[in-house]
Design goal:
This protein has 14 helices and eleven strands. With 412 residues, it is α/β, with parallel strands linked by helices. It has an eight-stranded mixed beta sheet, sandwiched between helices. α4 runs antiparallel to α5, α7 runs parallel beside α8 and α11 runs parallel beside α12. The longest helix has 37 residues. It starts with 9 loop residues before the first strand and ends in a 5-residue tail after the last helix. About 3% of the residues have low confidence.
Length: 412
């Protein structure tokens, strides 16, 4: 039994190429190793993008210890030793000597393996914590733009997967690629065309600027028809806002300026009556809703019931401000999901220079953006959202305008 040969302990290491594997192994063990096998594995999948091929190498350490290798770990040595001791009477001097030698060998091997494992763990921890200066700087820039920790972490991991250590020295190349990845994570809602009348509903928390945005959308529908040489657009606005003092008066003032009629609805029957009365004579019916705390489930539910009108087929937009905290935005999206909103309008973009919070959460929740607003002027200060617009607003990043316009041509 003591002379039997046992396969040595094997280890694995993963790197972009086999040469990278060899370099890492040399740093760990010098030349005291032998690669016994290698194969391709897939890693990555960050932000939903494609995985990348890596090499997983299996290796053994060349240093051997003259031990009776009938077990591959200290625990197995201990088990075999105990079994041998139990089968021994202690009366055979030769057996006693062999057992004593075996005990010493086992203890020496345990110490050696423990030291080696601790050393490998220390090196692995140091490598895990080691961060190239380019990655550190990119992380700082993303954090300055208020991207969430999880978003920043995913970008960092993807940089490590797609750039070799030497390639990381080219900061501008990495920066350019990161800008592209951010752009690819932004979903832009397509222009919606529905049968007439096009019913548009804006929902969202209080104070996000829904009423002003309703007026901007109405004004732009009228201007678009005029600019395209079409007959005057027939638009009507409705408010079901029962919480904010002056909401109805504000909308009526906008209506007077644009020569648009404004109605007030307090129940689902009111909404139905207005819709049934004017549906055959309107191009657009735009509804302003009450703003509630995202945690006010009861009133949000009641408002949803008010819009449950047969045939309404509303185009619903969730309205949020650009400065909404990421944690709050997650809650808002979750609690307004019952409205089945098709996309998001980001308002008050002029009040912040950091959009990472919004872009992070919308990417995570796979929500598209339709419009952005950046002021109070009606009909100005509203435009279709675009990837290029958001990328050019990134703070601290060097933006190649021609490149991003070529890359995101559909968003020009």
């Amino acid at each position: 039994m003591l002379n039997e040969k046992v396969s040595p302990v094997t280890y694995t290491i993963v790197a972009p190429t086999i040469d990278d594997c060899r370099r890492q192994l040399y740093d760990l063990h010098g030349t005291d190793y032998t690669i016994t096998d290698k194969h391709t594995v897939l890693r990555g999948g960050v932000l939903g993008f494609f995985q990348k091929k890596y090499i997983e190498a299996t290796y053994i350490l060349n240093t051997r210890h003259p031990t009776p290798q009938f077990a591959s770990t200290p625990d197995e040595f201990q088990k075999n030793r105990d079994e041998l001791l139990r089968s021994t009477t202690g009366e055979n001097p030769t057996q006693t000597i062999q057992i004593a030698a075996l005990n010493r060998t086992v203890e020496e091997l345990k110490k050696t393996l423990t030291t080696k494992i601790d050393s490998l763990a220390t090196v692995a921890a140091a490598q895990a914590n080691e961060k190239h200066a380019t990655i550190q700087k990119i992380e700082e820039m993303l954090s300055d733009n208020e991207f969430t920790f999880s978003y920043v972490n995913e970008i960092s991991n993807r940089i490590r997967e797609e750039f070799s250590f030497a390639e990381l020295d080219d900061f501008e190349a990495v920066e350019r690629k990161v800008v592209d990845w951010i752009g690819q994570s932004i979903r832009i809602a397509p222009q919606v065309y529905r049968k007439l009348p096009h019913v548009i509903v804006l929902v969202g928390p209080t104070g996000v600027g829904k009423t002003t945005t309703v007026a901007k959308i109405a004004a732009n529908i009228i201007l678009d028809a005029r600019n395209q040489g079409k007959p005057p657009a027939r638009v009507r606005m409705v408010t079901i806002d029962r919480t904010r003092v002056g909401a109805e008066e504000q909308l009526r003032r906008f209506g007077e300026i644009m020569n648009i009629d404004v109605d007030k609805a307090e129940t689902a029957d009111d909404v139905k009556q207005i819709f049934d009365t004017y549906k055959d004579s309107l191009d657009a019916l735009i509804i302003d809703t009450s703003g509630y705390s995202p945690n006010d489930y009861e009133n949000i539910g009641k408002m949803r019931s008010m819009l449950n009108v047969k045939g309404l087929d509303a185009d619903v937009y969730l309205t949020i401000t650009a400065s909404t905290k990421a944690k709050d935005l997650v809650s808002i999206i979750q609690n307004y999901e019952p409205f089945n909103f098709g996309s998001v309008i980001v308002t008050k973009c002029d009040e912040t220079s950091a959009f990472g919070n919004v872009l992070s959460v919308l990417a995570e929740k796979n929500k598209a953006i339709s419009y952005i607003t950046d002021g109070q002027k009606v009909p100005k200060n509203i435009e279709r959202a675009s990837v290029v617009n958001f990328l050019t607003r990134l703070d601290g990043f060097k933006i190649d305008r021609i490149h991003i316009e070529d890359t995101f041509t559909e968003e020009k």
